Amino acid sequence: MRERGVSAVIFPEGTRARHGALGAFKPAGALALLEAAPETPVVVFAIDESWRLLRWNLLPIPCGTRVRVSIGAPIARQPDEDRQALLDGARGQIERTLARWRLEKKR
Description:
By secondary structure, the chain is mainly alpha-helical. The protein has one domain. The protein has helices at about 30-35, 85-105; strands spanning about 45-50, 70. A two-stranded antiparallel ribbon has the order 1-2.
């Protein structure tokens, strides 16, 4: 990442089920990435309903499908940070975003 000047993306929960429940985070990869790039800010994404795009392997591309994406503000890193707490905070941010979207959907 540092040498090439690129960002890394990791999905610590894996693939979300069609019912949209947030799965347990599998933190090993995310924790390793946080350790390897301690100066790199963390940006939390929440994505919902993306499975609908691949329902038929994009054939046809499902017209009218709504996928929601939320991009959080970058989280600055600290030398003495608790990396697990950072991941827990990211998960909490995703949970709150999904809950808000679900409430909006019911209205």
